[in-house]
Amino acid sequence: MTGLLTSSLHRLKAGEPLQESGFFVFGDISVCQMGEFKLQYNLFELRGLRSQEPHVVFLTTLSGGIINITNTKSYPGLESSTFLSRSFSDQGVRLRLRKETRTPNAKKRSIDEVNEGEDDQDPNYRG
């Protein structure tokens, strides 16, 4: 795995009705091998930060559901970001958001197509 593999607690509002809860957000994790994986989360608490002997205490271990990592050719593409992701981003959590679904074979626009699009949309454009 690559990316930021640790997270601090974020106090965020979520749910209906909105309630403040604690979330551990992992917004930048990648898996480098194909296969089925299950993530394990270890929870620690920092204690005695204001004392002369701060220390870390292990609290518990949790396991997530199985995730399936496929190869690039069979990857279905990125979906648009969820409402929860957008809500967390609006509350200050740094996440990469997608506005729309993107497939791996989607055609990329050339700079000429971008300029043509601007010309069509703006009557004052003088490209």
Automatic annotation (TrEMBL):
Predominant localisation class: nucleus
Biased composition (Acidic residues): 113-127
InterPro entries: Velvet, Velvet_dom, Velvet_dom_sf
GO cellular component: nucleus
GO biological process, one term: sporulation resulting in formation of a cellular spore
Every Velvet domain range: 1-98
Residue numbers spanned by region Disordered: 95-127
Entry's localization field: Nucleus
Keyword terms: Nucleus, Sporulation, Transcription, Transcription regulation
Pfam families linked to this entry: Velvet (PF11754)
Superkingdom classification of source: Eukaryota
Protein name, per record: Velvet domain-containing protein
Taxonomic source organism: Microthyrium microscopicum
Lineage, top ranks: Eukaryota, Fungi, Dikarya, Ascomycota, Pezizomycotina
